[in-house]
Amino acid sequence: MADASSPADSGRRDATPVKAIDWAQRRIVIDERGLAEALSRFAEVVGTEHVVTELSALRAMGQATVPDSRRPSAIVYPGSADEVAQIIKLAESRSVPLWPCSKGRNWGYGSAAPFLEGTVLLHLERLNRIIEVNEELAYAVIEPGVTYRQLKAFLVQHHPNLWCDCTDGPPDGSVVGNALERGLGVTSYGDHFATLCGLEVVLADGSLIRTGGGEPGHCHTWNTHKWGVGPYLEGLFSQSSLGVVTKAGVWLLRRPQAFVSFTLDLADEANLPRLVDVVRELSLQGVLPQGTHIVNDVVALAVVSQYPRELVGNCTRLPDAVMRELRKHLTIPQWSLGGGLYGTRAQVNAVRAELRRALRGLGRLNVLTDRKVRALLRLETVLESLRSRPLLRQAIAAGFRRLSGKSVELLPVAKRVHSVMQGIPSDYFVRHAYFKSPLEKPEDAHPDRDNCGLIWFAPIAPCTGNHVQVVLNLCKQLFIHHNFDFYAALLMQNSRSMIILLSIFYDKDIPAEANRAQVLYSALTEATQKAGYQQYRTGTMGMAALFSTAPEYGRFVRRLKTALDPMGILAPGKLPH
Amino acid sequence: MADASSPADSGRRDATPVKAIDWAQRRIVIDERGLAEALSRFAEVVGTEHVVTELSALRAMGQATVPDSRRPSAIVYPGSADEVAQIIKLAESRSVPLWPCSKGRNWGYGSAAPFLEGTVLLHLERLNRIIEVNEELAYAVIEPGVTYRQLKAFLVQHHPNLWCDCTDGPPDGSVVGNALERGLGVTSYGDHFATLCGLEVVLADGSLIRTGGGEPGHCHTWNTHKWGVGPYLEGLFSQSSLGVVTKAGVWLLRRPQAFVSFTLDLADEANLPRLVDVVRELSLQGVLPQGTHIVNDVVALAVVSQYPRELVGNCTRLPDAVMRELRKHLTIPQWSLGGGLYGTRAQVNAVRAELRRALRGLGRLNVLTDRKVRALLRLETVLESLRSRPLLRQAIAAGFRRLSGKSVELLPVAKRVHSVMQGIPSDYFVRHAYFKSPLEKPEDAHPDRDNCGLIWFAPIAPCTGNHVQVVLNLCKQLFIHHNFDFYAALLMQNSRSMIILLSIFYDKDIPAEANRAQVLYSALTEATQKAGYQQYRTGTMGMAALFSTAPEYGRFVRRLKTALDPMGILAPGKLPH
What we know:
2 copies of one chain form a homodimer. By secondary structure, the first copy, chain A, is α+β, with helices and mostly antiparallel strands. Chain A has 3 domains: 120 residues, 2-Layer Sandwich (Uridine Diphospho-n-acetylenolpyruvylglucosamine Reductase, domain 2), CATH 3.30.43.10; 125 residues, 2-Layer Sandwich (Uridine Diphospho-n-acetylenolpyruvylglucosamine Reductase, domain 3), CATH 3.30.465; 284 residues, 3-Layer(aba) Sandwich (Vanillyl-alcohol Oxidase, Chain A, domain 3), CATH 3.40.462.10. In chain A, strands 14, 15, 16, 17, 18, 19, 20 and 21 form an 8-stranded antiparallel sheet that branches. A 5-stranded antiparallel sheet of chain A has the order 7-8-12-10-11. The radius of gyration of chain A is 24 Å and the shape is globular. The N terminus of chain A is likely disordered. At the A-B interface, strand 11, strand 13, helix 6, helix 10 and strand 19 of A face strand 11, strand 13, helix 6, helix 10 and strand 19 of B.
């Protein structure tokens, strides 16, 4: 965007809505007439009803769970790849910066909001077609507006032998958008970017390419052979501002013959590094699939409950004694391991046995089959029906606790973990974004709308007990220092790398707390970068610092940006400026 | 290279050894004084002994198993990444085109020889350091001169719990070079490009980057997290001329608890499509790993024998009747399936049972354990010791055949397949390049030196019986038409794609046959491209036509080339000009 910072000099003043860009303040100084002109041109392409400038809509799009999110100056909703190409061509000719967004459910990383205030939002939710599902070869070709919920429903109805992966995040999130951000799912197809095969991309000059040379009619393997022909270039369009993906092949799982989910409560926190090492070895040996994760007590608490203000008053972090008490009451362990096993019946049985052997001494392994889950569901129904008979309900709950060692509060978690591990998305987990919200968790969770305070911070470490412990220690002390609850989920990105997903939950209605959350985020960034740990993914808050420890590589990425998007119209701020 | 085609206009004539480039004739018109000047500058960097211009050496490097290979005008052997960077910087300033080559064992695709006659060979074999082996995280960091043989020997000695993958090609091939060409191996880590993680690359301007921002001391996950930070760009440097890789992380296999290899002789050729479908399903279900392959009779014949000139005279293709007879005599099936199973003992047992069930009715599954292989080895030794007693030998061989259904000629294959599936490279398979050679297979196979005639042609198809059969039919008729034996190996690139590796064996001493081999190659290219099947990888013979069915994508790749290597000094001809 360097060229656009003083467009007054360029003699194109009346053609661009950008007067200047203030990178420090993260905002575009808008020329209203130029913007109006550009939008009227956009409207000729997409229809006036698909160019939105109402303040309430702009506000909603600029609202995110991260503090200090920025508002777009307009929203354009193209309805096809061709319209995307036309809009981008117009945008390039007038230097109109665009912020592409698939569904805008990028909660915790900035939602739909652009990096720079005033960027025009290029919203792709109307591109929501499931173009093809190939049952035999187990893939789908979809547009970026297709959601997990939509894809799963379609498969259940038409292709029950295919499963999609999903995240435990928003069911209305974009399958393609998440994969392009290199998000992680929960099944054996959890590395979402790895499941992309065959992209249709509109470049900054409005031209349209298919990666790998998948021109229609010329390439049967467009969606089956990832690397294509010549250099493999799909990676260019992940975590990037180098193009807008309008169509993507996504590999699907063949429905396995057998499936079970499992959990293990780690008996002694001191064994966490050992658990990480065991998990890595099991994964390297092909015993444990992707999607295996380890979460701490705050994660579990946020899922089953909300911040207990009634117990702690104005404390912004749960005191250790309270946390201990809650853990005991809810039977939440300090750390627990969870995941799914997929395969033939014999394979799953073999793996179960191996898992039990490998985890011996670390805690109790609990394996959930569909049958067991049905029994738990029946118990839940019974308890539900006894709302009016609290004593009987309590007696049953106590009996269950004696038998299983678990509180009945955990029943809803078990069944949802079991189903999400089968790629069935659920609103249930999203509600944990309301942990610090003064609102009660709603049925139709929408953390942006409800002003929930949530920031993801996600460094990645080699998958060894030592490395993971170093990052945890480093970060935990900062959470404590800044008075926030330490939420930590360890997600296997692959057998050799562990994502350490941390969440800063804060009350967004309290400006001072939001400020402190930002300060903590900066401190985490600085400390982990200094210690040599990259982030696996970052949001608008972290983009400016993304390449600060990789200056050579940053320069290289900028060279590509200059070559492919010299006017810097795509997602300004997403790559370092 | 557009700019360099008439460098006389550029006023730099005395600085570049390139007078002109004749793309049609695939040669650079050399200015001898300019070349000498450039080489003397190169020699200042690498030492005079590492700049080679002796005609015999140039001839050797220009010699390949493909017809019509081109000779370099000099060979430069840098000894470090820093020297590579200096050479490239010098080359850029004087527009000296370089053809990078790791070990030059790219047999069947052009070996070490450049696309354009007269390109200076940048030979990386002196960069042969194994820089790190991380036992815990199962990876190595190596230079491009490191070979399969070298890496395996190092692991056997120092890290017996780590296995590397290898190909069934040359043991002295480059691990990194093959991975960058996206070559395929034979174990569960067979997709070699997929096992690369963390590249150090010298760009055309001589600058050095580490992909993903793996600057030393700033990124612990450089070799464990493939995608890095920001856009994932390692793919840029595969099958490409955009940079020279000087160091790479390569993921290694954790030595499995249990391993067996297996083969199945397909009883009825008509069931080949069904077999392909079964293999795909087993792979999608996680039963069969990568490395599973299906080969035809010509492959097996080339491995155990040579072209039986004594039987067929001047025929350049084995008549069907002779082939039938050979198959019967050697107990070679028309098609056979083979692969390895890796995992815990229980997993391998589970998979064996599943495999047996799924393949029922298709042929006899033969599972080889280490123990069985030892027994076969003993038998081989016995037979070897009976060379002087042919009758006894014959009786034992007949007995073995009655019991096993197999000829003793296949004994050497079984043990080598079993060991190569464990990543143990072997000279054995390479010798099949001598199929049409008038020489007997030598111990120290070197097909370039010995003027063997071999061209690989490798289209890729969706992994369905239908698609694979379409490609086979299309190609087989062309082989028959042009009078060459139809060599076909089906290699699973992934669960959804099958590489159809075809080899044109020809007698290189007979110019007419070499000519026909070229004609067949062109016919195969045209027919498969027209039918919508890309090549998964191509050599110097196929580079000019690589993007002919993907013009949009080709233009995009050229844009990148122009941005990163405006003088076109790296590997001219490798990307479309």
